[in-house]
């Protein structure tokens, strides 16, 4: 048998090369399909294990309380463990940045608020994440009014009396803050009323309360969750609420807007995930949260803690976050707060 001709050998090489190219193309196609299908498969099986819920404030804060309620709702609705981890500090940016850097697979979530999403960029010189682009809005879950409280032995019983006392004792009164809402709320009040006071930073609202009870802090504007029990026990004096209307929880306590025209402030909370989290996972979380947080049982738990339902889905929360960011930029400027 003779050797194959040059033409036959060339044809054999061309066939082998074509076969190799086809094989490579098929492998590439399979890889592309696998990458495209993987997120969908992941979303269908989500959650397949425990999920971390980061609360960027200390235990006992209103953010912690509503975060644990949201975790309970998700655990019951999705039949998996949603475990709360507290990461307080730096105006909530420590915990928020941890979530922003996390893998976008739905297994790390943030309990965000007006502090971490809207206010931090205007209160701090440097924020290690971009709230509106590095975090994916999932669902707004609740809100909280605030209360102007003073230590029980301070000789004032109305907002105007506090303002007058501040004018009579310039530089003597001090007030505390542990988050953006505390800071902006009290700064706006003292700035617009021309009070000469001293601001004292804290890492948590419960610490502020402890110092007011110990007569080391004169006043502050804090959430109803922390204020309610102490006011009811007569250990702190409620002077005003920051909502537009009086609150049933604090009978006889007027809105601060009655003294300072146009003054109104509400804290809010939402669940966020890292940017680029699959839409199917975001949708799953949002549906469970909105339904669960609106249940009679959850509403009763929120009301007991001084919190109110404030539901919204991903798109509405994203729009709301932008509006709140614009509002906080104006508020911080109006209050004369300098970034720290």
UniProtKB/TrEMBL annotation:
Keyword terms, alphabetized: Signal
Signal peptide start and end residues: 1-43
Domain of life the protein comes from: Bacteria
Family to which this protein belongs: Belongs to the UPF0065 (bug) family.
Protein name, as recorded: ABC transporter substrate-binding protein
Species assigned in the record: Bordetella genomosp. 9
Higher taxonomy: Bacteria, Pseudomonadati, Pseudomonadota, Betaproteobacteria, Burkholderiales
């Amino acid at each position: 048998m003779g050797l194959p001709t040059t033409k036959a050998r060339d044809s054999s090489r061309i066939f082998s090369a074509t076969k190799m190219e086809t094989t490579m193309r098929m492998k590439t196609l399979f890889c592309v399909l696998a990458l495209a299908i993987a997120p969908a498969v992941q979303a269908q099986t989500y959650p397949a294990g425990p999920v971390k819920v980061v609360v960027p404030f200390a235990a006992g804060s209103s953010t912690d309380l509503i975060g644990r309620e949201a975790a309970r709702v998700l655990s019951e609705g999705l039949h998996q463990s949603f475990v709360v981890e507290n990461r307080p500090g730096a105006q909530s940016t420590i915990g928020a940045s941890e979530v922003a850097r996390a893998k976008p697979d739905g297994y790390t979530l943030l309990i965000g608020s007006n502090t971490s999403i809207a206010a931090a960029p205007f209160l701090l010189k440097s924020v290690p994440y971009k709230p509106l682009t590095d975090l994916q809005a999932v669902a707004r879950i609740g809100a909280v009014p605030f209360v102007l409280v003073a230590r029980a032995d301070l000789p004032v019983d109305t907002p105007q009396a506090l303002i007058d006392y501040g004018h009579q004792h310039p530089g003597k009164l001090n007030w505390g803050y542990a988050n953006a809402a505390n800071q902006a709320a009290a700064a706006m009040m003292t700035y617009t009323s021309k009070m000469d006071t001293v601001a004292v930073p804290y890492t948590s609202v419960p610490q502020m309360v402890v110092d007011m009870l110990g007569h080391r802090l004169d006043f502050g504007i804090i959430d109803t969750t922390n204020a309610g029990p102490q006011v009811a026990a007569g250990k702190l004096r409620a002077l005003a609420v920051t909502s537009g209307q009086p609150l049933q929880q604090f009978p006889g306590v007027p809105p601060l807007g009655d003294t300072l025209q146009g003054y109104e402030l509400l804290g809010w909370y939402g669940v966020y995930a890292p940017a680029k989290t699959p839409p199917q996972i975001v949708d799953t979380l949002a549906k469970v949260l909105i339904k669960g947080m609106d249940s009679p049982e959850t509403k009763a738990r929120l009301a007991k803690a001084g919190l109110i339902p404030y539901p919204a889905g991903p798109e509405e929360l994203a729009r709301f976050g932008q509006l709140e960011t614009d509002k906080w930029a104006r508020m911080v400027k109006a209050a004369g707060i300098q970034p720290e």
